[in-house]
Automatic annotation (TrEMBL):
<feature type="signal peptide">
    <location>
        <begin position="1"/>
        <end position="32"/>
    </location>
</feature>
<comment type="similarity">
    <text>Belongs to the UPF0065 (bug) family.</text>
</comment>
<keyword id="KW-0732">Signal</keyword>
<dbReference type="InterPro" id="IPR042100">
    <property type="entry name" value="Bug_dom1"/>
</dbReference>
<protein>
    <submittedName>
        <fullName>Tripartite-type tricarboxylate transporter receptor subunit TctC</fullName>
    </submittedName>
</protein>
<dbReference type="InterPro" id="IPR006311">
    <property type="entry name" value="TAT_signal"/>
</dbReference>
<dbReference type="InterPro" id="IPR005064">
    <property type="entry name" value="BUG"/>
</dbReference>
<keyword id="KW-0675">Receptor</keyword>
Length: 366
């Protein structure tokens, strides 16, 4: 097991508080009511990726749980690596509960890196749900047949990877590929991870990764047909801050395991610390549902009660595992902890990533 030394306290707090929140029961019902209303659940991605799967899973549950049983509709606003949709949400004044925003690591990373495209401030928003997730890297069958537990035999291969951008959630795989010594040429500019999968299916890319929900729905069928081979997950954090195997994919080794087995890759030092920091922000606390910060206490309480009711459903563990995988769903104090983890990174880790982005991709954030 590999320990994330610089993020252990954050991870421990996240896990501990999430357990408390999920067992504490629903908050007291509030007087806000959405009878006859339509709630726009906006995500800053296309409709083919993991965020779309996640949002469409929660939307009907929210409709059933929110006071007045409003119609909850998922709306897509992709562009600029998800910063366009986030900037749009930051400008909205609808705070009566009929507008919520679903963010992801691809939205958090530009914020962490102080990307000049970012005109949104996470601390202006109120989190009501946080979802952890995982991710799986996979190869086409011919390259997958050459994978034997390390990347030594694939370091001479030339890979094409469809990417939303170097400062999006794809930062985690791109840095992992670099640490593994793989020659990966990213094709930047796709609107969502689902578009990267479509490139893979068309033979335009020969390495890809998907977050767990999209992998379960869209990639597992390719694996079952012998068209794709999973090679590693990002793993999850245990209660001691160690990277361990993802319980959704227990038979697939973690990046940490593959790194340890691959010549030249190390699970210590500044590169590992930087990867670890963005892994925590991008996966352990990846997806969050936000209300505008100006939403009234009654509206916030209504959403918190609804989310608590969803997590308390007797069938929630079963249906969420099938759609999203086995990961924490955090509300109340735990959602606040996840929110802070998602938007916090050390200066050292940030600078390492900024230097790498400039050197490898000519990306400067000024």
């Amino acid at each position: 097991m590999i320990n994330l030394s610089t993020t252990r306290r954050k991870a421990l707090g996240l896990v501990a508080v999430s357990v408390l929140a999920m067992t504490a029961g629903a908050p007291q019902m509030a007087r806000a009511d959405l009878s006859g209303a339509t709630v726009d659940f906006v995500i800053p991605f296309s409709e083919s990726g993991g965020s779309a799967t996640w949002a469409n899973f929660f939307a009907p549950l929210m409709s059933q749980a929110l006071e007045g049983n409003p119609t909850v509709v998922v709306r897509y606003r992709p562009g600029a690596g998800s910063t366009a949709g986030a900037n749009w949400f930051a400008e909205q004044t609808t705070d009566n509960g009929t507008l919520v925003f679903g963010t992801s690591g691809s939205t958090q990373f530009p914020y962490l890196l102080r990307d000049p495209r970012v005109r949104y401030e996470y601390r202006d928003w109120t989190p009501v749900l946080a979802s952890g997730t995982g991710g799986v890297v996979y190869l086409p069958a011919d390259l997958g047949a050459r994978f034997d537990g390390d990347m030594d035999d694939l370091q001479d291969e030339f890979f094409i990877f469809g990417s939303q951008g170097a400062t999006t959630l794809d930062l985690v795989p791109l840095l992992a590929f670099r640490m593994l010594g793989l020659q990966v040429e990213p094709v930047f500019g796709i609107e969502g991870r689902g578009d990267g999968r479509l490139m893979f299916e068309r033979g335009e890319a020969n390495i890809d990764y998907q977050t767990s929900s999209a992998y379960i729905r869209n990639v597992q069928p390719l694996v079952d047909q012998g068209l794709a081979v999973p090679v590693m997950t990002w793993g999850i954090l245990d209660n001691d801050g160690n990277v361990v195997r993802d319980p959704t994919f227990p038979d697939i080794p973690t990046f940490a395991e593959i790194c340890d087995a691959t010549e030249g890759c190390e699970t210590e030092g500044v590169a590992w610390e930087a990867w670890s920091a963005f892994f925590v922000s991008g996966f352990a606390a990846q997806k969050l549902v936000y209300l505008p910060g100006t939403a009234s206490p009654e509206v916030v309480a209504m959403y918190e009660a609804a989310m608590a009711g969803i997590l308390a459903r007797p069938d929630f563990a079963e249906i969420s595992a099938a759609e999203l995988g086995v990961y924490p769903q955090m509300i109340g104090p735990a959602a606040l902890v996840a929110h802070e983890a998602a938007i916090t990174v050390s200066d050292e880790a940030r600078q390492y990533v900024l230097d790498w982005l400039r050197e490898d991709y000519g990306v400067t954030l000024e």
